[in-house]
């Protein structure tokens, strides 16, 4: 999209939207936020120490609000490319339901509120990590990496991988090897998850001028990289058992899920299908994989505490 078109979207001086509460909720990317909340909560539960249940709830809420704030800032800045992508055209800013300035103010307000509240109610390490997560997603990823390099998802994935570390810090007041492993699982999961999406949304990214891997390196190279990362995902999933903070039962479950991930990635690599059905299947399975891995860690932690 030309610079003049971007300026037209962002120049909403004097216009007051008629946005509903639902429109502002959409700015928070609730589907993405739900996974963020879950992984952060698991980080809180797995961490040593404990928080008052009310403070634990507030900490989880702050992480959720912070993630939503980052989403709002992303939608503010990306309104121009969202307007030309079929997957994002109906988002509140490009659709005209929320003005760009409203989205910016909303995102900045929620960012400050969530960071300050988490710092005061839990600890300032957690608050600082949340602030860094918002900054990394809104500035490093959205404003810089996304439009400048096909490695945007690889590097930018750090923002989405930080919530369990923030949750861990909120409970324990520290960052440990275990929390870094949780980070690593999500960090390695992000490229094959989003590149699978990019394979069947190549036209969208091409129209928007976003250098996603399939548009820059080509379909064949992207499929090979998806397969390599999928092996790394499978290995990272069993690290909690290898490092001794999850049981052999979790390890077996994670290994089975990892083999499933590799199998779906192998189909993406070897099956020629113009409809990109294998990529769509991998994308769907990858969401299930991440939820199942963290759910298994959560269940095991709860069972262990009950039995202690």
UniProtKB/TrEMBL annotation:
EC number: 2.5.1.141
InterPro entries listed in its UniProt record: Protohaem_IX_farnesylTrfase, UbiA_prenyltransferase, UbiA_prenylTrfase_CS, UbiA_sf
Cell membrane keyword on record: yes
Pfam families in the cross-refs: UbiA (PF01040)
Domain of life: Bacteria
CDD domains reported in the protein's UniProt record: PT_UbiA_Cox10
Pathway membership: Porphyrin-containing compound metabolism; heme O biosynthesis; heme O from protoheme: step 1/1
Keyword Transmembrane attached: yes
Membrane-spanning parts: 32-48, 54-77, 98-118, 124-145, 152-174, 180-200, 226-243, 249-270, 282-303
Keyword line: Cell membrane, Heme biosynthesis, Membrane, Transferase, Transmembrane, Transmembrane helix
Function summary: Converts heme B (protoheme IX) to heme O by substitution of the vinyl group on carbon 2 of heme B porphyrin ring with a hydroxyethyl farnesyl side group.
Name of the molecule in the record: Protoheme IX farnesyltransferase
């Amino acid at each position: 999209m030309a610079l003049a078109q971007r300026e037209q979207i962002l120049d909403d001086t004097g216009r007051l939207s008629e946005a509903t509460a639902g429109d502002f909720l959409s700015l928070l990317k609730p589907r993405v936020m739900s996974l963020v909340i879950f992984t952060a909560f698991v980080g809180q539960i797995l961490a040593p120490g404990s928080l008052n249940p009310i403070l634990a709830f507030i900490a989880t809420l702050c992480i959720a609000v912070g993630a939503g704030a980052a989403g709002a800032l992303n939608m503010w800045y990306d309104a121009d490319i969202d307007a030309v992508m079929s997957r994002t055209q109906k988002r509140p800013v490009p659709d005209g339901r929320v003005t760009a300035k409203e989205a910016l103010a909303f995102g900045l307000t929620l960012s400050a509120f969530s960071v300050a509240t988490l710092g005061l109610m839990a600890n300032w390490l957690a608050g600082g990590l949340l602030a860094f997560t918002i900054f990394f997603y809104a500035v490093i990823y959205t404003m810089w990496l996304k439009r400048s390099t096909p490695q945007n998802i690889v590097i930018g994935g750090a923002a989405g991988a930080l919530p369990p570390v923030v949750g861990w810090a909120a409970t324990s007041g520290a960052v440990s090897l275990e929390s870094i492993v949780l980070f690593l699982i999500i960090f390695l999961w992000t490229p094959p998850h989003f590149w699978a999406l990019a394979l069947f949304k190549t036209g969208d990214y091409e129209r928007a001028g976003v250098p996603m891997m399939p548009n820059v390196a080509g379909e064949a190279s992207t499929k090979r990289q998806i397969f390599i990362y999928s092996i790394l995902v499978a290995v990272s999933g069993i690290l909690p058992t290898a490092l001794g903070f999850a049981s052999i039962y979790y390890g077996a479950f994670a290994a089975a899920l990892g083999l499933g991930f590799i199998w779906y990635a192998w189909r993406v690599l070897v099956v020629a299908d113009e409809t990109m059905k294998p990529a769509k299947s991998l994308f769907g399975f990858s969401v299930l994989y991440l939820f199942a891995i963290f759910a298994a860690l959560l269940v095991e932690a709860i069972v262990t505490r009950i039995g202690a």
